[in-house]
Amino acid sequence: MIVKNLDDVIGTEDHVKGETWESRRIILKDAGMGFSVHDTIIYKGTESMFWYKYHQEAVYCVEGEGEIEDLTTGKIHPIRPGTMYALVGHEKHLLRATKSDMRMVCVFNPPCTGKETHDEEGAYALPKEEANL
């Protein structure tokens, strides 16, 4: 059994900050769960581009308001508490926190190791063990 509190992550190496967001990585690959769980804040008034080419992601908004734009279709969806979206097709997207910071719970498959950084396309690199197949 794994029991963690957000306080166990804040201020550690698993609390990663970008220019427009911060991610508190609660469950990572080393937990052996087959997925990772992140508590992420998207800062108010910002736009963040993400494109998880090698990961599927499901996101549930617990606080704040904003929108997600699918850059493939141009479709924009509002986000508010209770909204979930899943990137089943590795969609390149923009997240905008419009009225306030957005707090999102994100689940990734394959699980993140915690060492990933977004590249210029907003993507994480292919996990090393996957690249060697």
TrEMBL record:
GO terms for molecular function: ectoine synthase activity. Keywords: Lyase. InterPro entries: Ectoine_synth (IPR010462), RmlC-like_jellyroll (IPR014710), RmlC_Cupin_sf (IPR011051). Belongs to the ectoine synthase family. It comes from Mesobacillus persicus. Pathway: Amine and polyamine biosynthesis; ectoine biosynthesis; L-ectoine from L-aspartate 4-semialdehyde: step 3/3. NCBIfam families: PRK13290.1 (NF009806). Its EC number is 4.2.1.108. Catalyzes the circularization of gamma-N-acetyl-alpha,gamma-diaminobutyric acid (ADABA) to ectoine (1,4,5,6-tetrahydro-2-methyl-4-pyrimidine carboxylic acid), which is an excellent osmoprotectant. This is L-ectoine synthase. The gene is ectC.
